[in-house]
Amino acid sequence: MIIDSNKIDTHNEILIQSHANKLVFLASEIGETENIVQKLIDFQIAIPSWALGTGGTRFGRFAGGGEPRSLEEKIEDVGLLHALNNASGAISLHIPWDIPTDYNAIKSLAAQHNLKFDAVNSNTFQDQANQEHSYKFGSLQNVNKAVRKQAVAHNIEVIQQGIALGSESLTVWLADGSSFPGQLNFRKAYQNTLESLEEIYAALPSNWKLFLEYKNAEPNFYSTTVADWGQSYSYVKKLGDKAKTLVDLGHHLPNANIEQIVSLLLMEDKLGGFHFNDSKYGDDDLTAGSLKPYQLFLIFNELVEGMDARGMNHAKDLGWMIDASHNIKDPLEDLLQSVEAIMIAYAQALLVDRKALEIAQNENDVVRAQEILQNAFRTDVRALVAEARLRSGAALNPVGLYRDLAVRNGLIAERGLKTMATGL
Ligand code: PSV
Ligand code: MN
Ligand code: MN
Predict the structure, then answer these.
(1) In the predicted structure, residue 423 carries a pLDDT above the cut 90
(2) pLDDT score, position 424
(3) How much distance in Å is there from the Cα of 414 to the middle of ligand 2?
(4) 213 C-beta closer than 6 A to ligand 1
(5) Angle at CA 131, nearest 5°, toward 130 and 134?
(6) What is the pLDDT of residue 58?
(7) What is the DSSP letter of 287?
(8) Ligand 1 centre distance from Cα of residue 379 (Å)
(9) Per UniProt, what is one GO molecular function of this protein (predicted)?
(10) Residue 50, ligand 1, Cβ within 6 A
């Protein structure tokens, strides 16, 4: 299914007057808007291939129908999102959930939808049917060298697949850890993991990055071998310049100050990228910004400040990805909402009066500092995000148009009601 650009134009014509009024009002409040709109046009957020179907929980799964049955259909789904918002111009694959059979055909399908291949993700947290050794007691950390070798070989294989697709980064997330005290010698687990990561790192092309994602718990509930940003930092620091830490917002202990983590990783040149989502209890993988939009804004505030301080390109120098799961919402609608929330947080962060904030900080004017941040956060920037979409041929109201065009029904008609996307 492809969304005709005429349908987008017709949709925009209906909404244009109301949009223009909002934009004029906003411009009168904040002044210069061009710079922000251009940055929003440039900003793209990769969609994970595993988030296009209904995830479910270990208690059950309530499929919505019309889910992508193949890598081709996953690319088509991301293409639909990108046509609607022009902000989802990349797909992140998870191997072996996604294995291209014909690389050129997959590349040209992605190009037809204006999509790039973002980070490729390895999977050593599940056993595959044809696999010799089990990952039950870990992969890169395993006490058994043969298991480690198998896991290293898988990661190198994923790099090869990524090269064939034009991807430029590998994300490693390890389920490795222990479930009970005494199960693991922490130091040896660390050393085995480091040694394995070094072998993977050595296989990276020169223009590639390795993102090491941390997670405080789950599936192991006593210890995780890359449990927090400090542990990830310790590995990536030893690996070299191409290795960076990946921050998944749902992978922290409750109340962690993620914005401070982001600021310091950026300062150390060790922040690689993000997995955006939202959560209340753990790795809930809910829609970005659905629970803690202020936290999302504060994270972007540090990103903008830190990236500008280092002269970095907002759109290109970090990996921006969503990592979400959908239990009760239509995955495509949910992803549109996540992208919108991320764009809003980014636009609000761009509004922060940096000079005034610096003065307030230097004068220890705590009240003024809070006013500056909250003025930006409480500004309704949705018209700026919509303007970025309008200028790039996307829809003023992506979720609205998705519903008006009954896209899900179209996908069900094409693919059937009982389809099951691979992934979580
Ligand atoms: C683990 O919880 C994680 O966040 C990692 O990014 C995985 O690759 C992804 O979820 C999908 O399982
Ligand atoms: Mn993740
Ligand atoms: Mn996760």
Answers:
(1) no
(2) 57
(3) 30
(4) yes
(5) 140
(6) 86
(7) P
(8) 33
(9) L-rhamnose isomerase activity
(10) yes
Residue 63 is predicted with a pLDDT of 84
Topology (CATH level 3) of domain 44-342: TIM Barrel (3.20.20)
Q: What does the H/E/C string look like for 62-99?
A: CCCCCCCCCHHHHHHHHHHHHHHHCCCCEEEEECCCCC
> For residue 24, what are the contacts with CB-CB under 8 A and spacing of at least 6?
none
Closest by Cα among 336, 340, 253, 350 to 300:
350
224 membership: H or E segment, kind and range:
strand 223-224
DSSP 219: S
Beta carbons of 66 and 412 less than 8 angstroms apart = yes
Distance 389 CA to ligand 2 centre (A): 27
Looking at residue 148, its pLDDT comes to 98
Average confidence score pLDDT of the chain: 97
CA distance 83 to 240: 38
Of the candidates 399, 249, 385, 227, the one whose C-alpha atom is nearest the C-alpha of residue 324 is 249
Average pLDDT in the 43-54 region? 96
Sequence-ordered list of residues with C-beta below 8 angstroms from that of 195, at least 6 positions apart, any chain: 148
Tokens 């479910």 -> residue: 56
Say which DSSP state 57 is in: B
Tens digits of per-residue pLDDT, 251-307? 999 999 999 999 999 999 999 999 999 999 999 999 999 999 999 999 999 999 999
What are the pLDDT digits (tens) for 231-253?
Answer: 999 999 999 999 999 999 999 99
Mention every residue, 6+ apart, whose C-beta is less than 8 A from residue 58: none
From the CB of residue 372, how many other CB atoms can be counted at a distance below 10 Å?
23
Q: What pLDDT, on the 0 to 100 scale, is given for residue 57?
A: 86
Instruction: Determine how β-strand 177-178 pairs with β-strand 169-173.
Output: unpaired
Q: State pTM to two decimals.
A: 0.97
Distance CA 171, CA 342 (A): 21
Of the pLDDT bands very low, low, confident and very high (cuts 50, 70, 90), residue 421 is low
Could you state, in order of their start, the residue ranges of all structural domains in the chain?
A: 44-342
Cis peptide before 219, with omega less than 30 degrees from 0?
Answer: yes
